[in-house]
Amino acid sequence: MGLLDLFLQSFSSISLFGALVVLLLVYIFSSSFSSQDEGKGPPGPKPLPLLGNLLQLDLKRPYHTFMELSKKYGSVFTVHLGSQKVVILAGYKTVKEALVNYADEFGDRYSMQITKESSGGNGVIWANGESWREMRRFALTNLRDFGMGKKAFEDKIIEECTYLIDVLKKCKGEAFDTTQPIYQAVANMICSIVYGSRFEYDDPEFTSLVERTNRNIQLLGSPSIQVYNMFPWIGKWVANRKELHTMVAANKEQNRRLFTCLKETFNPQMCRGFVDSFLLRKQNLEESGNTKSHFHDNNLLQTVLNLFAAGTDTTATTLRWGLLFMAKYPKIQDQVQEELSRVIGSRKAQVEDRTSLPFTDAVIHETQRLANIVPMAIPHKTSKDVTFQGHFIKKGTTVFPLLTSVLYDESEWEHPRSFYPAHFLDKDGKFLKRDAFMPFSAGRRACLGESLARMELFIFFTSFLQHFRFTPAPGVSEDELDLTPRVGFTLSPSPHKLCAVSCM
Ligand code: HEM
Description:
Its cofactor is heme. It contains 17 helices and nine strands. It is of the alpha+beta class. Bound molecules: protoporphyrin IX containing FE.
């Protein structure tokens, strides 16, 4: 009988006290039980039975704990989350080596209990094997066809900027929360790619979809969901789990309705977006007698939800950090605005302007580096046994590539914990590419929206700074602007308000 079973049985039939006594006894009699003793696996702190290293973990900011542990155990180490063994990879050289040189070995996805329940292994983010390969390839092709690298899409971002700037102008320089307008503008870019059209900002269909997506990402990183992932049997006591499932169900329902509308007006000669394109592929496969392909309704739904979640929260959050940094560091904001007015004046910024705006480009990169919005990437899993840097790691082991440790690597960055755009500038003020800039991760599972995100970040950020001066809310000093991230699966700024004072 497994330890968990023993604990569960004790919990239900005797009492919590009884179960704890059992645990204590098991612990006392298993004094030789430590992660170092399990084969030749990476070292790590000694785990308690069942709890693993839970008591050492800062559940709100687990990446902090892992950064601390890497100082003691090195760049490849083991922690136990409950009874689950997780290998942490830390530092630029190690993370890069694992994800790029051992791309296959470290390229599977580990799906947490909560994401397994909601995705069913479909879509891109939480999938593996042939289904993942097909969905990833199809999503990438379509992101290219309907978005990335296309002039038409660049024009769509520029058009969305106009709507967004109008919203900010309506605030008339008064303090506002940057979350909703930025989320909506960025979400509309995904809507254009996925459904083939944007929504009005006051459309309740749209606002609810965006709000739920935002809330889901927050819940996914909440301490109670993390504990639930380790001990799924506590499920019914976790209110956040219930809320998350309710919201995912509502998002699925809403998408099914949107798909029905698209099907009613579907024209195979003219694909409007990703959904049409998927339906067309599905239809062609069915007509050719292939009924067992991966192009089925669940994969469509899950891939759309993935693109929406991964493509909205990340880019919007990065933009919000960018504006917060500008308000906090007004001298850097001055330099960006000086460069923008000198190089492009009042005309609309385009992607091709990037090369002539090295300072602005450096500020965007530094925003992504310091904001570190996906601190532990998304969990990976080894696809086969691997010996890495002398450590044996078994097939199926969960792996966290600690992106924080790359973006804050002291041997790569001069001022890892400060906002220092010069990280990305050479001595002549030209833009300098840095290898350790890895906010999109690397290897087989690297972000598939990177080009799209970079395009959006550049156009939205430059347009904001061309039109407005960002300052803290009245009565708040620059020093008082808090850079502590909010708890969530991605790291967004803590709630705050800024003023956008029109300067055009
Ligand atoms: C600033 C913006 C963004 C950042 C920082 C970012 C970062 C990341 C990171 C760190 C991962 C995990 C990689 C890994 O597991 O090793 C990821 C995966 C992913 N991203 Fe992004 N992302 C951004 C924008 C986007 C956009 C705009 C889209 C889509 C339109 C997107 C779609 C995805 C998908 C589908 C995956 C899962 C890939 C897979 O499992 O094969 N991301 N992203």
